[in-house]
Structure formats: structure tokens, C-alpha cells
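Worked example 2:
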Amino acid sequence: MRKEAREVLRQFQCDYIRILEETFAQTLSENEQVRLFFINENQAFTDGRNIIVDPACDELFCDRPALEKTCEYLHWPATVSDDLWNALRIITRAQTIHECLHVLYTDFPPKAMSEPICHTRLRKKILAHIDNIIEDAYIEAVGCSVYDNLEFYLRFGRVSRVFASHPSEGTAAKSLKDENRKAKTDPAIRRQMALIMEFLNVMCTDLLYPMLEPEILSDELKPFVEQAKPLYMQGSLAPSPDERYAFSKQVFEIILPLIPDIEADLEDDELKQRLGGEKTHDALSGSIGTEPHKGRTQQVTTRLFTDAEGHKREGPEVDSLMVMLAQFARDRQVAIRILSDEGHTIVTRGADYEGTVMHRGIRINELHPRVNLQLHKAYTNIYSKYRLNINSYNGRFEQILKTQVSSRETGYKFGSGILSARLGDPQKRYWYRNVNGIDVPEMAILLLIDGSGSMRGMRQKSAMMSAVILHEVLRQQGILHAIVEHRAGFTKPEIDVNILVDFNAREEEKYNLMQSGAGGDNRDALALYWAERYINRHCHADSRWIIVISDGVPAHDYDDYYPPVSTKDTANAVRKIMKRGTDVIAISLDDEGSYECYDQLKEIYPHLIACNDLGRLTGQLLGLIAKLL
């Protein structure tokens, strides 16, 4: 593999792309518990819950001749073969779709594991191969019979194996047992083993590669294929896993006379390459899952390359494929941006802010953290838990935002009023009209969360969950917002303002909410001055709001910044900020039945909401924003 290809593969196998693929797998398999992993072992498989894929399987993504032949056969544009990233994405998606369909429609663990008639390793392996071929043919038939736009990938996955220049040799152990070596010296047994492999290859070609020339059968094998072919063709369209396995057993029993009764291995590396591995159906290693899984029943109407009767069928039009390639290009830009973003810190001083005499020597560390995609699962868990709440608030907000908004259009020669500023227009276009419409109010919200040590525990956790729900609701409603956590160093002349979600945030920034914590002191006045400047610099909305979540009065040990001085200073900051046009509202967090924090903070904030039930924090926060709207 060339250096360029290795670098592209490294970029592709980042967490962002893996999460995208996992999310797709969860959606297709209709199971949020499904997990997807990237490996580099030339195999793809599933145990019914975990999906393993190898984007670099057979090094196909950088095998230009194989990709060109595949695209030519499928009548696809050269965009796929010319771009390593596109090739990786389509190869990976083809594997993901194949394994997801197994998750939906295949039984786990495979029945061949416990089949009484298979009392030797060789028999188990042959039955597993037969079942594998029938099952693969069926799930690919389901993919093009039931689902939209999956056929592109399934066809690519199958055709590209025909043209691959560097097929893998499989992952099975290459050394055979002593009895297998001895068996190979017996001419009769060698012939039987050759006939078994010939049969499996014929079956594989008939069901999975009908575009290839049919295998030329040896005279000894013809009667077995003639008996078995109607069964495995019918079995590949059988709607239930039990029916398909019954057909597999019948096929196996037909060729049973060909199978020597010995404990030998099967030299099936070439077959495994055509099948894309066998671990999903491996009757010898067993399932890596913990629970049995029953596949669904589904009728199919066509096969991947032929109709139900076996006549050749053309593939789908490529228009939808071009739309997918465009989305892949956008995903690539995001992935590269994340990989190159190391996060950064902007340092300012209290002296840079108007009216901050008490904070002139304090340093402000404006932290823009690097996105940690490992927090995707934690965020998704919270989102899933509160999805109903999020949908409920979105519905409420949509009703609020559907109210009529009056706007003024100018430049008319006739209308409902005259603009004196335009009276000099020689064409007399000084009339205006009032027009009613529906629009999102121009407002910006900065949620400022107290990150001091006193928030540790349930208060910090409740604030974090509320921030997640708030972000999801405001994002869907198109309302500008940022979520910031602040704290001061105990004995250091500095404060940290940690921007968890910025205005116009990228999608992946929301995972930063999982990085919020509690520690240190708090110097609310300086944090508020910073918040005022930040919201004014980044937003041009007519209505700007800073919403503060706090559990106590400001206190910073560095310069004995304690009440009543800190209380008075913060109250002055709130008054100045509001006078300059940015509104400030606070929510006080108290213990159940207590209003101690509320009584303290009402000396600072003219607009203050009491919360002494953390379970109601999200409702109060979103209710407040609904009133503002």
C-alpha cells in the first residue's frame, strides 16, 4: 500500500466516520444497541449485535484497476474509482449493509453448531458454508426487494470481489492437523475433498455471482448438482431462517456421500474470499454474542442480479448514488476538520473590559476544547433518555414560533405609509407596506453555567443534562445559542470560560457538553463582562440574553473576593450589562425546600428564578425561554 493510501486510510478510520457508520447501522438494523468497529484483518462479520468491518479489505480501495472494472460493469461514473475516500466509504457501507441485514434476518448462533448429523469438524464446516451461501443470497435479495438505495452498495460489494487484484487468503490457520495431512495422501479422500470444493464453488457462483460464466461440472458431480440446485435456489428465497436452514440441510444430505468421515479441515480460502469471510456463519468458533438472536421473516420478490426466475436484471439508476457521493464529500470535510482541530485558548485580561476595576489583574482563559468523539455514546444515552421531552418542547416552541410577525417592506410607489428619509427619491418610491409572515425571532442566548466546586454532584449533572436538552431544542428551532461553563482558580489570578457549544456550532461540538465538570471558585462579574462582549461580537440579534445557572454567591480566594464586596460588584456588572442592551436572567439552584441561594442571588439579579428541585431545572429553563419568545 502506498504512503498516500495509508494516510487516507488513517484519516478515514477516525472516530467521526466510525460514528457515522455506526449511526447508519443502528438506523438500518432498527437497534440502538448495535455497535460497529473498524479493523484491518480482511474480514467483516457480525454476532447479531456487534458489527466488524474492514474498510481496507483486500486493499480494494487503492486497487485502481479493480475499481475501474467494477465501475465499468455497474455503469458507475469514474468518481468512485478516482477518489480513494469515495472508494473507502462505499466499500465500508457495502460491508455495513450486508452485516446489518444479517442482524435483521439471520439466526444467531448458527444452527450448524448443534446439528446432530455433523459429528465431525469437516461436516460442520461444509454445512456452515452451504447455509452461509444461501443466507448471503437471501439477505442481498431482501436488500434490493425491501429497501431503497441499498442495491448500489450490495452490487458493488459483490462485483468488486470478482475484480479484486489482491484477494485475502483468509484468516483460518494454514497448518492442518496430522490426521488432515495423512488424509490428503489418500487419493480417494483427495478426490472427495476436491468434489466438495467444486460443489461449493458451483453453488456460490449460481447464487451470488450469476454474472460469471457457469462452472463446468465434472461428470462425478453433475448428478449431485442437478438434485441440489433446485433446493438451494428455492432456499435462497425462503422467507424465514428456519425454512432456509431446512433447505441447507437437504442440500447437505444430498452431498453427504461425497464427504469423507474424517476429522480433516477444508482448504476453503478461495471460497471464503468470494464470500467475504465466514465468521458470521462460522459453526466452529461459535458466536461472540451473549444472547441467541432470532431473524425476521420477510418475503422477497427479486434477487440482487436476477429476478426470481433467474433472468438477468439491470441495476438501479445512478442519480441517487451521486447524491450519496456529495454527502460523502461533506462528511470528509468534517472529518478532516476534526482531525486538524486541536482546540485553542484565547487569553484576555480583566483590564480589557469596561468597568472592571476590581478585575484588572485577572487573566481570562477563553477555552475552545478539542471535540472528543469518544463522548458520542454518553451524549446519545442522554439524548435517548430525554427524547420525548425534547420532542415535546420542540412542539411547544414550534407553536410559539408560528405566530404572525409583522415586517416592513420599502421601495413602493403606493403603500400604507411614507418614509420621510426617502422623500428625495426621484421615482417617488417612498411608500412602505406592512407584511405579515411567520419568522423565527432574532434572538441570541448565552447559557452561562457555574462550574465551581460547589456544583459537584447532582447540581452539575442536572445542569449538564439541561444543557443537552436546551441545545437540541434551540438547534432544531434555529435559535442562536452558546453554552459556556466558567470557574476561577482558587489561588490563581485567572478564570476559565469553557465554550462547550459555540454560536453556529458544528454538529460534533455538542459532545463537549459531556466534558463539563465542577471545581475551583467563581468570579461571576468578570464572567458576565466576558459573556456580554462575546455575545455582542458573535451575534447581531436585536434581543440578546445571558441566562446564568448558579448555586451561590461569587467567591474567589485569590484576592479575598467574597461577599459583600463580590455580591455588590456582580450586581453592578448585571446592571451595567442590562443598561447596555443585553438582558440577564439567573436561575438559583437550592436544596429541596430551601431558598438560601435564591435569597442571596436576588441581591444580584433583578430577574431571578428559584429552583429547589433539580428534576424541574430543564422545564424551568425551557419554560423561561418560551416566555422570552
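The domain at 344-402+440-628 is CATH 3.40.50.410 (Rossmann fold). DSSP finds 20 helices and 14 strands in the chain.
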